[in-house]
Design a protein that fits this description.
- By secondary structure, the chain is mainly beta.
- 0% of the residues lie in helices and 52% in strands.
- Strands 2, 4, 5, 6, 9, 10 and 11 form a seven-stranded mixed beta sheet that branches. A four-stranded antiparallel beta sheet has the order 1-3-8-7, with no helix packed on it.
- The radius of gyration is 13 Å and the shape is globular.
């Protein structure tokens, strides 16, 4: 059974930074591409970024391109999302996703 656990969220001021982590278990992590998605209050789920199984290929939503960086460490079964220059628009629950599996999420709140 695939198990995904996100962490690293928190309260940060506009312009601040955070790094989120997603640890996977129950799966051959290095065989799968991984994705970050987010959901802001009252809004639909939004795709944020995807990384392939090797970590060499990455794609980003236009809303985060240039500010967020997705990367992974296959030796640690962990994927990361570095969030920089955060704005209030980035406030959301952030989830990692592997195929049809999603973790419980980690909350990012950007507020002064």
């Amino acid at each position: 059974e695939v198990h995904l656990v996100e962490s690293g969220g928190g309260l940060v001021e506009p312009g601040g930074s955070l790094t989120l982590s997603c640890v996977a278990s129950g799966v051959t992590f290095s065989s799968y591409g991984m994705t970050w998605v987010r959901q802001a209050p009252g809004k639909e789920l939004e795709w944020v970024a995807t990384i392939d199984n090797t970590g060499r290929n990455k794609v980003y939503a236009d809303t985060v391109k240039g500010r967020f960086t997705i990367y992974r460490d296959n030796a640690k079964n962990t994927m990361y999302l570095e969030l920089n220059n955060l704005s209030t628009e980035d406030t959301a629950m952030y989830y990692c996703q592997l195929s049809n599996n999603r973790g419980q999420g980690t909350q990012v709140t950007v507020s002064s």
